[in-house]
Amino acid sequence: MRSEYLTPVLSGLASLQNHAQQWILDKGMTWPAQPPTNKIDLHHHFVPDFYAQAVADAGGDPSGWPTPKWSPSSSRMIMKHLGVQTAVLSVTAPGPCIIKDPGAQANLSRRLNEYAAALRDEDHSTFGFFATLPDITNASAAIAEIAYAMDTLKADGVTLYTRYGPNATYLGNPVLEPVWKELDRRAVTVFVHPTHPVDTTRVNDYMTQPLIDYPHETTRAAVDMITSGTLKKYPNVKVILSHAGGTLPLLISRFLTPLRKAPDVLANWNMGTTHNDAAKAFRAFYYDVALSSSPQVLQTLLDLVPHDHIVYGSDFPYAPSPAYPTFLEDLEAFDFTPEMRNKLNFENAQVLISRLGKHVAEL
């Protein structure tokens, strides 16, 4: 069949698949009672066709997770079910780093940011966005896109991935200092999303990277920032950790408890930080509850994290469809005080993104 005939056929099949997936999520799932529409979703991805194609052209997502079909209407549909009034859009890993050529990376970042800004401009109360950056080990390119995204497009913050480059360049690495300095100068809100580790070898065929490696990667990046003093050096940056901080809340005592008895000089020599500085850094992070609203995880956050540092996230559209009604059910059933539920749903996010303060109100 000639390509000019085949292309519209394939396009039509893709559109049909997208509508079918959206129908299953909308009508085929058993949803809990409709919650109030007042949430600000700080972990909500967008996947325009040109980005999905770029990932496919590069051989697919190295994490092993399939790139989902997405459209603005699918975001609006899930927002209605979840009680989300505003979704702050972001591009998940691998992002533009899937392309090795620096120029092509920069071009894809710019195109993604302009696409997100256009969606935001259509309705400021429905969408915002965290800017997408090229590989931040290329400081000049990253800083140029930060400037354009923040000054021209008025982004709500930026997305950083837990690791960059072919090696273990996590977010506390000294090579990234110029980018952190610029983010600090601008007092930017930073959304940290995990990416695949250097070694993507699967334990078995069922264990794609997002299953457990992504939470571990968030922990690696967070502890790297703690031991490198990143948050202490750049206090104007507000850092959101995905998925309740990965495994950080469970492992932080393994790190902090021995430091409690260590003299500061010895602690700095051995670990790059002291007990008090490390504890302060842990509590300085913000933690979203994307795929993390089971009662055990929520209680852990409430026990360890300042209550004004817990924010809502859905991880749409990358989670399996049953995850959305199930985690919503757990979140709505949890015994929060009304004050704490408002903090998590929208008030804490309004502090991070002040422009949303005048938009979000319970409907």
Summarize the structure.
InterPro entries: ACMSD, Amidohydro-rel, Metal_Hydrolase. This protein has 363 residues and is α/β, with parallel strands linked by helices.
Structure description:
- With 363 residues, this protein is α/β, with parallel strands linked by helices.
- Helix content is 50%, strand content 12%.
- The strands form two sheets. It has an eight-stranded parallel β-sheet. The protein has a two-stranded antiparallel sheet with strand order 5-6.
- The protein starts with a helix and ends in an 11-residue tail after the last helix.
- Belongs to the metallo-dependent hydrolases superfamily. ACMSD family.
- This is 6-methylsalicylate decarboxylase.
- Apparent shape: globular
Annotated CATH homologous superfamily:
Metal-dependent hydrolases
How many distinct folded domains? 1
Number of helices: 14
Mean pLDDT: 92
**Low-pLDDT regions:** 9-14
**CATH architectural arrangement:** Alpha-Beta Barrel
Report the order of strands and helices: HEHHEHEHEEEHEHHEHHHEHEHH
The largest sheet has its strands arranged as: 1-2-3-4-7-8-9-10
Helix/strand-derived category reads alpha/beta
